[in-house]
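Suppose a classmate hands you a notebook page containing two proteins, each written out with its sequence and a corresponding row of structure tokens. How would you begin to make sense of it? This section walks through that situation. The first entry is reproduced here exactly as it would appear on such a page.
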Amino acid sequence: MATQRRDPSTKRPQQSRKGKPAARGPLPAPVHRIKVGQPNKRMRWVITMVMIVFLVFCGRLVQIQGFDPSSLAAAALQKRLKVVKLPAERGEILAADGTTLATTVKRYTLVADQLNVSQYKDDEGKVLGAEVAAEQLAPLLETDADRLLPMLDGKKRWKVIAKGLSAEAWNRIDGLGIPGLTSTETQQRSYPNGAVAGNVTGFVGSDGSALAGLESSMNKELTGTDGSRQYERGVDGSMIPLGENSIKTPVNGKSVELTIDSAIQWYAQQQIAAQVKEAKAESGTVVVLDVKTGEILAAAEAPTVDPNDPGASDADDRGARVFGEIYEPGSTAKVVTAAALLEENLVESSTQFEVPYKWKAPNGEEFRDSHPHGVEKLTFAGIIGESSNTGTLIAGQKLTKKQRHNYLTKFGFGQPTGLNFPGASSGLLAGPDDWDGRTQYTVMFGQGVAATALQSASVFATIGNDGVRLTPKLVKSYIDPDGTRHDAAAQSGERVVSADTARMVTRMLEGVVNEGTGKLAAVPGYRVAGKTGTAQAPAAEGGGYDGYTASFIGMAPADNPQIVVASTLQRPRNGHYGGPVAGPVFQKVMSYALQARGVPPSGSEVKELPQTWK
């Protein structure tokens, strides 16, 4: 049998002398065996990991230096590049006399690095901190230091403090020497003359988007092309002077010069606003045209809008009524009927008519004049001078329906004005086949047809221009950023009636001012030809009528017409006839415009046309 080896660490139990086991003492404490480490294995593991990391770096180094150095360098450069937008300036809107109606001004946004502000010190090195900075800055921002302090005190590196600061305000702030205060340059649209031509210029939103008027319709011309500035920055964000730096210069927008005469525009706005208040009217407009060129010298209205604060005006007052609001012109449209009858040789100014208060048309429709009267013996010139509805219809029935419609169309009713203006209307003129039994007559005295104030004024400008109709003109020229001027295209002309017809109508209209319903429109020293208008105003809801439109349109000097003025008031409650309500506005604006344009007084006395016969 093999001998078993005994573990020397164990001892055989001692025997007593008598062969019996000795008594067992207390057990020894357990022994914890310590595992001996394996340094070779650990070393191999460490070496393996080091080799892997080394190989990764070597592979990356080979890739960078050998295979794709340019693309990686470009990617790194892109991360270091900063691109800053350089906004182009929006072009200006100018009046014909050079007055700035809309421009772009520089504004500044004040920004604080709160950590730097907290290190604000005096000249002796004593830390003043954000609290003193707030006290010094508050008066310049017109606020309280307590309100300002939370924006300056903290750990933010970029905190907007105020927007829309002028250059002067920013310079004062910068002069305080407070560290951590910087600014970013922005642009803001400004309208230096406030509400003067505000309904024409329109306005832009707080984000610079064009919202109304010429700002909207000429947005393409006014808007420039933004540039940019690109520079390479270090880890602290500062520009690396010799890094990749470049500038793409912005191209500013074109400026637009209007035909508007700012002085006449201002005066017209003052007069119509005063008359709207006096007549307790809903609104009013004044249009001033240059007869020979078709240029719009003024397009005034009340209420109007200040483009610097459009939100202060009602939504209905932020547009341009002159170009977009349509109404039945009433008796001013009798000029078209008169011109048509003369042009077609159906009547002469001296043709005699017996004119009753009421008149029944062949189809049974009955019409009446504005005031009761007996049968009057009036010449055709007298019918126009007295603005007789029944007399106009008796003479006008000589025109066929097609002729009535053709002349209304040729004078511009129901036709585009040619202006690219937001909300501009062509008016309303149904075809002759769509006229009912009453409308075929009412169109001859300005009801059943609708037009804008500009369209109605254009009728008189056509008569004053010897029967040639010009497209109304609002833009005079475009001006490049370098100052190069491009004149707008000359307005096209279309003959509507002969020069003889136009001059005879003008003479007949002088009778309206001298002897008829327009005596309040007379201008001392000048011969004036014009026409009153009083039309029923359609109700906004439910059909029918709920007020009146009072107007007066005329030209001067009548012996050589230069200027047309059209004044209109909607739903006046303190009187409603065109002569007394709108005539005074015409008289004041025409007097001012003639003087402002240097138009000499009339050189000949008017030879009155017979108004009555026996």
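The notebook's second entry, a different protein, reads as follows.
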Amino acid sequence: MFDPLFVAILIGSSLLVLAVATSLIAFRIGAPLLLVFLALGLAVGEDGLGLDFDNAGVAYSIGSVALVLILFDAGFNTRTETLRRAAWPALTLSTVGVVMTTCILAAAVHLLFDLDWLPSLLLGAIVSSTDAAAVFFLLRIGGVRIRERVRATLEVESGSNDPVAVFSTLALLGLIATEGEAGAGVLTLVSQFVLQMGLGAVGGYLGGHLIGQTMKRLQLEAGLYPVLVLGLALMAFATTSLLGGSGFLAAYVAGLVSARYTTRATPMLRRFQEGLTWLSQIVMFLLLGLLATPSHFGAILLPGLITAAILILVARPLAVTACLLPFGFSATEIAFVSWVGLRGAVSILLAIAPILAGLDVGQAFFNIAFIIVLTSLVVQGWSIRPLARRLGLVVPPTIGPVEKVELELPGHATHELIVYRVVDGSPVSRGERLPRWARPSLVVRDNRSMRHHEAGRLAPGDLVYIFSSPRTIRLLDRLFASPVAIDEDDTEYFGEFVLQGDAPLAAVAHEYGMGIEAEDGQQTIGQYLSRRLGADTHRGDRIAVGRIELIVRDLSDDGAVTRVGLSVLPATRPSPIDRVRRPVRWRRKKPSAKSAV
């Protein structure tokens, strides 16, 4: 006689192992990994291997907890620089953009399928937010290195728009339940939104400081810190929700705030949360896949595909364009942000709510949401990398991999112990001498530890242990990085000409027919770019001056622009600038492996 508990544990653990194993296939063929998890749930479900799971309440509860953990980790891993760079455009997208997407999609559904306005708005709200797990995977793990401003905007938006979608969905369910009081309901809706978002932000802010202060002041066993942070994050979510606020927003804000506290346990916390977030994503996608019944999709397939097409091609682009144009985003950047509006587990999770509320359209909405998510992951998820290249948004790499591990030191040490693995082709492997301040404390070669002077010249594969202050780690990265394979001609991204950052702007403007202000002519071209772009200047940032586009090509360690790419934008009719001669002073040159490091 089989014990049901052991059978359930065996099935659950087998699915986890299988999900991890299939990730190897996903990376090899370039498939969106979260699509693989969802497909695995479908494959072992009722229409696949026959595993019967139809408890929508359990799926919703487990999915909600998993979403809290994902949002907290999203906030915890969002850098202050990223938030500062993209806060306003991203928050506009996550509020106004979500509402606009909901309304545009609802209008289309109402007209095409003759559905009442409130149910149409409900369907729009369910699929209105981008999925944080899907977007974070593609941007942080999927190898898509795009312009910093675009990447930051997408990261902050995907982490902060789920609370608005959750509120909209639940509020519209309440309006449907109180049909006939729409006028009073709208006023109530506005006040509830302000209250929930306000309490969510305050609860997350206080919870984040509580987590940070607790981590700094308590001396615990190393393994207890992640458990404590996990408990406090869930407490912030639950407490805020009980007080009538948005617990999901509180979880995200708590992650943002607590990450500003640097403690010796921070590296360990990041590793723990990375594994916990993967587990949350796998469990959530597997459960939602198990809950679906693909044999029921046939009757709703065409409306689902039409709705997905409207969302992807009309509603999302219109909302993104309206939200980002005031912030000076280019047409290519707006097009890319529009396309990266991937839908995922959150939309399916919210589609469970109408079922739990007992709506007649509940099951139909769940199936439509599932079809939309599958379409989004297949069509958008598979095409993001080639689209980024086609739009010229992929930033060419400057250095190859740097394999390093940060280790915790007791107390409040001002230095960090960094472990580098020497890679082939790096400056140190080619015999470049290490500065006195970067002398290794220990070298491990062939499983044998030795002093630096005993090791002699460092060789590929050596593990090098160095005590370093945080401000010099970037310099160490360059010493231990390998050159990367760069296309012989990178003019498609950085422009046809290469100028030095200390070139006088007045001379460049005269040579290329750029219209600049008289006072700007006293600056170098690097100073001009830094002033126009602000403190957060990144490689690949660009500005247009008439028909000339200036692109930041290289930065010094202190953030000064050292090299600038120049591109002549196409004109609709011939112009004298098309016949401009190449300057003698700043000749074009191709980047070499040496200059890339």
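A careful reader of the second entry would note: The domain at 491-596 is CATH 3.30.465.10 (Uridine Diphospho-n-acetylenolpyruvylglucosamine Reductase; domain 3).
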